[in-house]
Amino acid sequence: MRKEFLAPAVSFAVVILDYITKKIIQAHVHLMDAINVLPFLKIVHVENTGGAFGVFSGISNKIFISISLAAIVFILIYLLRTAKRLEIISLSLILGGAIGNLIDRVMIGKVIDFIDFFVGKWHWPAFNVADSALTVGIILFLLANIRQGKDSKNTQAQRHKGTEG
Q1: DSSP 76
Q2: Which sign, positive or negative, has the C-alpha torsion 76, 102, 97, 64?
Q3: Could you confirm whether 116 is annotated as catalytic?
Q4: Catalytic residue at 113?
Q5: Is 107 exposed, middle or buried (0-12, 13-18, 19+ CB in 10 A)?
Q6: What is the largest CA-CA distance in the chain?
Q7: Which pTM does this prediction carry?
Q8: What is the mean pLDDT of the chain?
Q9: In whole angstroms, what is the distance from residue 61 CA to residue 63 CA?
Q10: Displacement of CA 84 from its chain's centroid (Å)
Q11: Beta pairing partners, 122
Q12: Which one of the listed residues 18, 104, 113, 116 is annotated catalytic?
């Protein structure tokens, strides 16, 4: 897929999948109910008024909206400047996740979370498709930049070797 289409396609897919799954949860799972799926996974219906994993729940929704909008602008600028495929994919996932949660914040003033992953009594905070895309996107972005840093060091080392002899 060409660069011009890759970012919008990935971001759009995340936004649509996030939106549809949240609507299904709202329609079929009562608030605070849980459906056992696997021994380590439940589908729940949680409304998150805070940031990631419910942190900073006392902060105004307008601040979260402002931060989201600023992040979206930054990501779009970065996307326009990069040609590296892994960075494009990672930033597109982050963008789609940011937009997905922003839609909730603007429309209902909170974010719908519904995936409850746990081991024994230890529960990861509930999350959604947008959060998953954000997490995977950030990990891929870090890996792309670590790899780019190693490639840059190797190139510099080879240049240095070439000038010694």
Answers
A1: H
A2: positive
A3: no
A4: yes
A5: exposed
A6: 72
A7: 0.83
A8: 87
A9: 5
A10: 19
A11: 119
A12: 113
